[in-house]
Design goal:
Length: about 750
């Protein structure tokens, strides 16, 4: 990965500035003397010396007997047949090997157009040497060819000539920037002309007679832009080293790649060392190699170690985030972010009263507590890694066994916690609850959260294991936003009330109705109340619904009672609501606001999720009854709504559950139960309502048993208020049967 980024960096030259900064820093400190065989006579400029002065200077230099002279000043202004005859004479008198230096006017792609040759007539039989430098993207001189072919003729470059004809390997040479431009021996032309400089300085040397006007535009590492000849001198100096060659950046990059690859999976300490060695190597190797004349660019290698370092730092940081500080165990986030193994269940264990346990321990033992629990879980499950989050949750993955085996496996693990935990001087009993997610294929984070929610549910309900069912996953987003959706449904009329008639069997007339909630969801269609009442209870929205139902039902009760006959309106009250402290007050307010006598309202207590606080529930029901509300025990004979209810709850009415009622025609046992229940209820002074009557036979049987009121599809389906009113008005004339 790092290598890939490095190669990419190499391709887009993102690493160049790094190498650039590197060489600039290196050559600031690494300074070598210039070759002593080279002397520059500078300041040779026709404007300053006059052409005659230049001519005289050449004679003086020639007279000093140098090894070779290089004419590196502007001669383009001296065309054939014009100019100063003296200068021509001086040039002609020079040794035949005195060379003309022609500098490239470009920094790359050298061809005939890059060079302005002096007049051939002026050059005569003297050789021409070239100076041409390729530059990097920041214009720093990088390389020069040993020689260049122009118009079929090969010209050597000044550097190779200064190095006595030696060139770099593979036809290229690379300037040695360690050569300090200021250290190149120079003698100003003026001093020579005024005989102020000893001529011995030039004897036997390679003398570059340099003008001041020829700037290359190239830059020199570690220094300000020097005079152009400095590059050629540096080039010549590089050729004195043993291996004048460039290895580019690949060998170093490969080495870095190898070292970082090698350290993979090694202990942290070794990895850190390997990294430091790599960095050191990348920094030192190019200089060491350069001393041998070998050019090796550190750019991409530096880029690679830098990227690698950043990635490591980032990983370290995330690892830190993914470990809980006190225990040192990886936290849930780490599990959520990991790819779960194929064929696994996610288990979360919730430890009961974990905070209380921690509260009794000194801070420094908190980690120890988590570690001990994790160790025990690890021993029971065999999981390699146990994840821990503050608040006493531990997560891991289990091989996905058949459900019954998985459940008994977890039961077995619970047994491991039968022995108390010993932390410091304290012993603790540990009560553990499990949440299990078996939804393979779902995102890790979702699975961890599902298992976590189930573990919390198990903890809250005192169960050992709670399974997160797959269908709940689909329902989860819906359930989580139910709060807002219910409010919206109430606002826009998607939630409404249906009324189902209750008949008085003695008078054969409608004596009341049960208000039943309906929800026509715009996208999900009609939602059965059984389903969303349960969800509303979970979402904590059942209060708003209940109060809204009572309010609407109270309005309807007013309307119905205004028709002249007494009309009893039943509403349902979820078991979960019964112990709510504000219940009685709110009910009283609603009926008062709507001007309804509370005795016209029957409150059916439905046990959907069990009674919460029984004492508070009984207290509330007693108060409601004192206010005048009638109380009914709904779904009698099912769940908790049994004899215990009848004994405890103050009530006026008992509603036989439709599951019994439906069977009385065909089934002797049910018939006996219903019949004796009616007797029992009457003995306790209760009215009996039978619900779920679907045929005439059932109705007839119930009547014969002495049942007081009847409700069911046979007598009338739940309907919107207007339709119900219509039926009610009709029913005055006709008795049962219009189903
Ligand atoms: P429940 O209070 O026992 O209401 C009677 C249910 O039996 C109603 O179902 C009604 O439509 C249905 N039913 C009536 N006659 C027949 C029949 O002849 N055959 C059959 N098979 N069913 C019949 P619904 O409306 O689906 O309501 C289901 C449950 O939802 C209710 O049972 C009640 O527990 C709850 N519920 C309805 N509205 C409310 C409400 O406003 N608040 C609360 N807390 N619960 C409500
Ligand atoms: Mg009911
Ligand atoms: Mg019922």
């Amino acid at each position: 990965m790092t290598l890939l980024i490095a190669l990419l960096g190499w391709a887009v030259q993102a690493a160049d500035p790094l190498g650039h900064a590197y060489w600039n820093a290196v050559y600031k400190f690494w300074q070598a003397p210039a070759p002593s065989s080279i002397v520059v006579v500078n300041g040779v400029d026709a404007n300053e010396l006059g052409v005659a002065g230049e001519a005289r200077l050449l004679d003086i230099v020639r007279g000093a007997k140098p090894a070779r002279i290089y004419l590196d000043f502007k001669l383009q202004g001296v065309p054939a047949g014009t100019g100063d005859a003296a200068l021509r004479g001086s040039i002609a008198r020079l040794d035949p090997n005195a060379a003309f230096v022609v500098r490239s006017t470009k920094n790359d792609g050298f061809n005939a157009a890059s060079f302005n040759f002096p007049d051939p007539d002026l050059v005569g039989r003297h050789p021409i040497v070239l100076s041409a430098w390729s530059v990097n993207f920041l214009f720093f001189a990088e390389s020069s060819p040993n020689s260049i072919v122009l118009g079929g003729q090969r010209y050597p470059t000044l550097s190779t000539e200064l190095a006595g004809g030696r060139g770099g390997l593979f036809g290229m040479l690379y300037p040695d920037f360690a050569v300090e431009p200021q250290a190149i021996r120079t003698i100003p032309a003026r001093l020579l002309l005024s005989s102020h400089a000893p001529l011995e300085l030039l004897a036997g040397k390679q003398v570059i007679v340099a003008g001041s006007g020829q700037a290359t535009g190239a830059a020199y590492f570690g220094h300000q832009m020097p005079s152009p000849y400095a590059f050629d001198v540096a080039g010549a100096a590089s050729l004195e080293r043993p291996f004048p060659i460039s290895l580019t950046s690949l060998p170093l990059l490969s080495l870095v790649g190898f070292l970082l690859w090698w350290s993979r999976g090694k202990p942290q300490r070794i990895r850190n060392r390997a990294y430091l060695v790599t960095v050191g190597l990348v920094l030192a190797a190019p200089v060491a190699l350069r001393m041998q004349g070998i050019v090796c660019y550190p750019d991409t290698a530096l880029f690679a170690v830098l990227v690698f370092g950043c990635i490591r730092l980032w990983q370290k940081r995330t690892r830190k985030i993914q470990h809980t500080s006190a225990s040192g165990l990886p936290n849930m986030l780490a599990l959520s972010n990991s790819a779960l193994p194929v064929g696994c269940d996610v288990v979360v264990a919730a430890i009961a009263r974990y905070e209380e346990i921690l509260a009794t321990l000194p801070m420094e033992l908190h980690g120890e507590c988590a570690v001990q629990i994790a160790r025990r879980i690890g021993a029971g499950s065999g999981a390699a890694e146990i994840y821990h989050s503050d608040g006493g949750h531990f997560a891991w993955t289990e091989e996905a066994r058949p459900l019954d085996m998985q459940l008994s496996h977890l039961e077995g693990m619970r047994a491991l916690f039968a022995a108390p935990l010993q932390i410091g001087v304290n012993t603790f009993d540990i009560n553990i609850h499990f949440g299990l997610d078996r939804n393979e294929g779902v995102e890790s984070a979702t699975r961890v959260n599902s298992a976590l929610a189930s573990a919390n549910e198990a903890l809250a309900n005192g169960r050992t294991i709670e399974l997160f069912e797959a269908h709940r996953l689909a329902e989860a987003p819906w359930e989580l936003s139910l709060h807002a959706r219910i409010d919206e449904g109430l606002r826009n009329g998607d939630i409404w009330l249906a009324y189902q008639a209750q008949w008085d069997l003695a008078s054969n007339s409608i004596c009341g109705a049960e208000a039943l909630i309906r929800w026509n969801h715009p996208t999900r269609g009609p939602i059965a109340p059984d389903a969303f009442i349960l969800q509303a209870e979970r979402a904590g929205r059942i209060d708003a619904l209940t109060y809204w139902v009572l309010d609407q039902a109270a309005i309807a009760a007013c309307a119905m009672n205004a028709k002249g006959r007494r009309f009893q309106m039943s509403v349902n009250l979820s078991g979960q609501m019964v112990d709510k402290p504000e219940l009685v007050q709110t009910f009283a307010e609603i009926v008062a606001r709507r001007g309804v006598d509370p005795s016209l309202i029957t409150v059916e207590v439905t046990e959907t999720s069990g009674l919460g606080n029984r004492t508070a529930a009984i207290h509330n029901l007693t108060q409601l009854r004192q206010l005048g509300f009638r109380l009914s025990i709904d779904d009698f004979g099912t769940g908790e709504a049994s004899l215990a209810y009848l004994a405890d709850l103050p009530s006026d009415e008992l509603k036989l559950d439709r599951r019994f009622v439906a069977k009385i025609v065909d089934n002797d046992r049910e018939r006996a139960i219903v019949s004796s229940t009616i007797g029992l209820a009457h003995a306790l002074g209760q009215t009996v309502v039978a619900e779920g009557i679907e045929d005439a036979a059932t109705l007839a049987l119930l009547r014969s048993m002495g049942c007081d009121h009847a409700q069911g599809y046979f007598l009338g389906r739940p309907k919107p208020l207007t339709a119900f009113e219509h039926d009610y008005d009709d029913a005055g004339a006709r008795a049962f049967g219009h189903v």
